[in-house]
Specification:
By secondary structure, the protein is mainly alpha-helical. Helix content is about 45%, strand content about 5%.
């Protein structure tokens, strides 16, 4: 199996590897794959069954020089009206119910990971598991790759 693996280092590589026929499937950010479908007419299909839902957050590093501007930015992008517009540019799901309610186009809503039909068998990213087991699993993986 190792000889068949192709690693990518940037999000743009995943849809390109598919388009070039170098791989037949890939793990990738849905926004990249959906953009290739919508903008390049790529014949890709996103498999939502078993999608891993991950979460991000905003942080301001201690000692930041422009802390007021950072707070203003986070407040701005956290407003439902701005989050509700995001789906027009990238197919990532809204992070609040208020933003989700602003998505009124059923065709656009169906492309989001948060669409009910896409959430049937989602799997939460288990940060506790990875925090507890990363070092051991990474060691095992690297040993396997080195064989």
């Amino acid at each position: 199996m190792k000889d068949s693996l192709v690693w990518w280092e940037s999000g743009a590589q995943a849809p390109q590897l598919l388009a070039d026929g170098e791989v037949t499937m890939t793990a990738a950010w849905n926004g990249r794959i959906q953009a290739a479908i919508d903008n390049e007419n790529q014949p890709f299909t996103i498999i939502w069954d078993g999608q891993v839902m991950d979460f991000d957050g905003w942080a301001i590093p201690k000692g930041s020089k422009n802390i007021d501007a950072a707070y203003d930015y986070i407040n701005y992008v956290s407003e439902a009206k701005h989050m509700g517009e995001q789906h027009k540019y990238v197919s990532y799901g809204p992070v609040t119910n208020a933003a989700g309610a602003m998505i009124t186009d059923p065709a656009l809503a169906a492309k989001l990971p948060s669409a009910p039909q896409n959430m049937k068998n989602w799997v939460p990213h288990n940060t506790t598991f990875w925090a507890d087991n990363f070092d051991e699993l990474n060691e095992r993986f690297l040993a396997w790759m080195g064989k």
